[in-house]
Design a protein that fits this description.
heterodimer, A: Porin, 16-stranded antiparallel beta barrel, 49% strand, globular, B: 304 residues, mainly beta, Immunoglobulin-like, 2 domains, five-stranded antiparallel β-sheet, 1 helix, 6% helix, elongated
Chain lengths: 452, 304
């Protein structure tokens, strides 16, 4: 905690640069032999009915009960970690071991008739992100109409705590994302990847559709379940897209997403009359003129506001003798949608909060299971933000961008060990002149994942 | 393939090195001076120049609402700089290993060509009592520091000493008995006087028979004071004294460590000082909290 940040910074540079140097010394040897290796065995799948977890239990009888799950355990180091408590008592230490997700899912399905089935899914999670937390993460019941020959249903209707159909990254299960967490914009707009509501989705040839009416309160998996829909109006959202295989080994999918919803700017409770003391002269004594009577106030009404978002996404997967390569492209515009990071409240600010975000990601997996990746993501949470500079309000380029290199090993499809570094470029710090500058908040994470 | 891997690793190196730059968000709670909302930077502010400073970066005025502050107490400070300043840097001279940067405000409508600034400062809990200098410098656009100016700030102890720590000629109280503890809990100090009467939060006294300064932690109010003082501003009556402590409410704490000090006025060649003549330390368990139980006798001494 003492002012040894300069020394820590230098040590951080040396350690990480040394790590990278070692990797440079190791990886080209593998790369040289890559062409001699057999074709990649790992199939890259798009989001399907299972919404993340890959159920693999045997199907026996008309009622099938399947169990599946995964565990993500990690060690992380963060440049903004301090051995200190934030106001309220939350530890500021971020250099720690974390059980990020421990998921267990039970899936029951009934074959109602030929090509018709009903399915119920309950998924529980335990994690230690903000203390030990456990709770339901998915609870949905649905019906599907599907050809036996097709992986995707023609029509499926799902109700309950279910996936949010917006974009690509959000719909992919946390155990199937190549990068550890979703990008900053996605996490800000959708703090959780599930929400209560009714969802209709399916596939007709290359066409994909996925629409829903939800509560508009994404379920943040890092927190205890406290979110309750504060507005009667549902959020209407969906994605219309495609999935095709234009050439052998090349799979391309993409779509356009939209969201139209309603948010709530909370009012305030009624207050009692009270007296406050302001020690204007800092003498520690109650002097004349330093006490002010505050009369009781009635409750202030809450106000609703509109929010919307539109987005485009594209993913291409190429399987070749050199392995499997995935390219992710995604971008979206949003209005008053930030619910997780720079929380939007247009009633409070008197203006809409316009944001834009997106990502470009590239992941390549060699046949032996070694994979490397790089993701660049941008997030401009508020395009119209103003800040006081020397007494004048000026536009500021509020941003939260990240470059995330990834390196890891996969054993079959079950075990994965990976290291990800997140270099975050923002304007949350203050430089020597007190002007906004990048805050030292990079982090690296070593994560082990097992699926069963 | 090799090119791809090399490119990714090159980006990794660049990102790694880039990540080692940037500002920290160290809350600086271990610093002797703390300023809410300001940014802590490593380094020392230069001493003020011997002659009147010149140049575009200057602090032209400093106003401190009070010239003394006890540990943890907040004070308001404000002032003006020349118009070229982007921020002011503040530091307790010779204390700590960093200084705080606070952005300046707009141009002062009453002082042409000058900017205003304001901050709320507090003295850290670990700072030794005594006269200090608060150093302030203007900061330019590149972070360059202008010449410093200093203003006196006396750090007082956490007991009422009549500002003796700031001016030794001011006589401190004749006797001070302090009960201090380490957690936010509700403890009460009681003193059994030589005549057998009890000084407590419910039974007060006078400057000659002793006064309690505050009922700290009352009703688990979270005042963070964690100490109570019994003060004899005039000569304490001679005889045998007993200090007692009661854990009224542990406020959820499993245990509370406490310390009792008896401090006496001592004459020196240039005035007065305060010496600790007795100190006792102990611990009370949360399960021992009882507002109705007799207080625990923790120290005894004689005033001759």
């Amino acid at each position: 905690m003492r002012m040894v940040k300069g020394v820590q910074g230098a040590r951080c540079c040396l350690l990480l640069a040394g790590l990278v140097t070692q990797l440079v010394g190791v990886l080209p040897a593998h790369a040289d032999h890559a062409a001699d290796l057999p074709a990649a065995a790992t199939a890259v799948q798009g989001p399907a009915w299972s919404d993340g977890l890959d159920e693999r239990s045997a199907r026996n009888g008309p009622l099938r009960l399947r169990w599946s799950g995964y565990l993500q355990a990690q060690y992380q180091r963060d440049q903004q970690s301090h051995d200190e408590l934030a106001p309220g008592g939350t530890p500021l230490n971020q250099d720690r071991f974390v059980v990020r997700r421990a998921r267990l899912r039970a899936t029951a399905s009934w074959e109602l008739a030929s090509e018709h089935a009903a399915e119920a899914v309950v998924e529980y999670d335990g994690n230690t992100v903000r203390g030990i937390s456990a709770g339901v993460r998915r609870a949905q019941i649905g019906w599907r109409w599907r050809s036996a020959a097709e992986a995707e249903p023609w029509l499926a209707v799902t109700g309950g705590l279910t996936s949010i159909p917006f974009g690509d990254e959000l719909r992919v299960g946390p155990d199937q994302l190549p990068f550890f967490e979703r990008s900053a914009a996605s996490l800000a707009w959708f703090p959780g990847s599930t929400d209560t509501g009714l969802r209709v989705h399916g596939a007709l040839g290359w066409f994909r559709y996925d629409v829903a009416a939800t509560s508009g309160v994404p379920f943040d998996e890092r927190l205890a379940p406290t979110a309750i829909d504060p507005t009667a109006a549902p959020d209407l959202l969906g994605r219309l897209g495609f999935a095709a295989e234009p050439a052998r080994g090349l799979h391309v999918s993409g779509g356009a997403s939209y969201l139209a919803g309603t948010g709530l700017s909370p009012g305030s409770d009624a207050s009692k009359a009270r007296v406050i003391w302001k020690d204007y002269n800092d003498n520690g004594q109650l002097d004349s003129g330093e006490s002010v009577a505050l009369p009781a106030q009635i409750a202030r009404a809450s106000t609703t506001y509109k929010r919307w978002a539109v987005g485009l996404d594209l993913r291409a997967t190429l399987q070749s003798g050199l392995g499997t390569t995935q390219l992710w492209l995604e971008g979206a515009l949003a209005n008053n949608l930030d619910r997780g990071q720079f929380v939007a409240d247009p009633v409070l600010t008197g203006r809409d909060q316009r944001g834009v975000g997106g990502l470009v990601g590239l992941v390549h997996e060699l046949p032996l299971g070694l994979f490397v990746g790089l993701r660049a993501s941008v997030y401009r949470p508020d395009l119209d933000q103003l800040d006081s500079r020397r007494g004048l309000l000026q536009p500021v380029a509020a941003r939260y961008d990240a470059i995330s290199p990834l390196l890891g090993l996969r054993w079959h499809d079950d075990l994965r060990l990976a290291l990800q570094y997140d270099h975050i470029a923002d304007r949350l710090g203050r430089d020597a002149a007190g002007e906004p500058t990048d805050l030292r908040n990079d982090r690296w994470t070593l994560r082990a994942q097992a699926r069963f | 393939m090799r090119v791809l891997v090399q490119n990714i690793l090159a980006i990794l190196v660049v990102a790694t090195l880039a990540g080692c730059d940037g500002a920290t968000n160290d809350p600086g709670r271990d610093q002797p001076l703390q300023i809410a909302g300001a940014t802590l930077r490593p380094g020392q502010l230069p001493a003020p120049p011997a002659e009147d400073p010149t140049g575009p970066l200057q602090v032209t005025a400093i106003e401190l609402t009070s010239g003394h502050a006890g540990p943890g107490e907040q004070r308001s400070i404000s002032g003006r700089t020349t118009s070229a300043a982007y921020a002011v840097a503040l530091q307790l001279a010779g204390e700590g290993d960093g200084y705080w940067v606070q952005p300046v405000d707009g141009l002062d409508p009453q002082q042409a060509g000058e900017r205003t600034w304001a901050a709320t400062l507090a003295v850290g809990y670990g700072v030794a009592p005594g006269p200090k200098k608060l150093r302030v410098a203007a900061v330019g656009a590149s972070g360059a520091l202008g010449p410093s100016r200093e203003v006196a700030l006396c750090v007082t102890p956490n007991y009422p000493d009549n500002l003796n720590s700031c001016d030794p000629t001011r006589p401190p109280p004749d006797q001070i008995v302090q009960l201090a503890w380490d957690r936010d809990a509700d403890l009460d100090l009681e003193i059994v006087r030589p005549d057998g009467s009890v000084l407590s939060a419910k039974k007060g006294g006078t400057a000659a028979t002793g006064l309690l300064d505050v009922d700290a932690g009352a009703n688990c109010g979270g005042d963070a004071l964690r100490r109570e003082n019994a003060v004899w501003s005039e000569a304490a009556p001679k005889g045998h004294y007993v200090a007692r402590a009661r854990l009224v409410n542990a406020c959820g704490q499993p245990a509370v460590r406490l310390r009792v000090q008896v401090l006496r006025k001592v004459a020196t060649t240039n005035g007065f000082t305060v010496n600790a003549t007795l100190a006792w330390q102990g611990e009370l368990l949360g399960s021992q909290a009882d507002s109705a139980a007799p207080a625990l006798a923790v120290a005894a001494w004689d005033v001759k």
